[in-house]
Model the fold of this input.
Amino acid sequence: MPERWLLTGGTGQVGQALRRNPPSGVEIVAPSRDQLNLADLPPLAPVLTGIDAVINCGAYTTVDRAESEPEQAYAINATAPGRLASAALVAGIPIIHVSTDYVFPPDGVGPWSEDQTAAPGNVYGASKLAGENAVRASGARYAVIRTAWVISADGSNFVKTMLRLGAEREELQVVADQIGTPTHAGDLAGAIGAIALRFTNDAAQHSGIWHCANAGETSWYELAEDVFTRAARRGMAVPRQVKPITTAEYPTPARRPSDSRLNCSKLTKDFGISLRPWQGAVEQIVAELASEGT
Ligand SMILES: NC(=O)c1ccc[n+]([C@@H]2O[C@H](COP(=O)([O-])OP(=O)(O)OC[C@H]3O[C@@H](n4cnc5c(N)ncnc54)[C@H](OP(=O)(O)O)[C@@H]3O)[C@@H](O)[C@H]2O)c1
Done:
């Protein structure tokens, strides 16, 4: 009998990647927002009947808008994961919950380990931390997987925004004083699948938080430069100039960590998983978009 996993956020970057490549022997059940609204969840016992694990990739992810919509952000990022985890406890199944580097403070120094104190500097990060805490307090077996700077050929993300703007403008200005670890949605989905399988197949697998990102580090500016170098090689439209600017020169409603690099060594130690360097992920995305004619 195949395992059946309930996936929220199946239309998002990470959810789409997991649906496209589920682990072998796993059937993904991915209700849409209309069928399972995280802002207004129905009773969950019937939803979890016949389900072996909950994978919570659904989230309120518009970081700047969260500053003016905290109720929505908390409903989806904090209350819903708590409800899903409590229902998972009752059903006797594990929950794999995806969280973020933005739980770390705006002015701290990474790479961040799982045991370092979270202190979010914006509403989105605070709502995600509240979600982690609700999952941890539920009593269910859980994995909280924090990731960062998710990129893919799907949905909206930094790589796609750069290619769109780069095709429209002669010059782009990109923040150079925020550093982090980009993460390919497909690589992350592979890790989520392996972790979830460990939880469903090994009752002794302990709960915890794990960081998961591609290897290496970069700034938004360097990432943009890398994207355009690869795009130009494939004949895609790129700007004439990319100019590094400071965060102060590009004010946004939400304050972001200046250093959100994640230390992922615990993931390697506990699950034998290490993701490839981020440059390979960018190459794959640019190649996919070039072949689609984007
Ligand atoms: N993107 C990043 O850079 C980043 C960085 C760190 C951590 N993360 C975390 O990684 C996880 C996956 O992110 P992602 O990039 O895949 O997100 P995404 O592409 O923005 O997708 C978000 C998903 O959540 C769903 N969703 C939002 N509100 C919902 C609601 N009220 N009811 C049901 N579904 C709802 C969306 O459905 P619709 O299609 O219907 O809107 C979509 O499927 C999230 O936990 C996020 O916090 C992301």
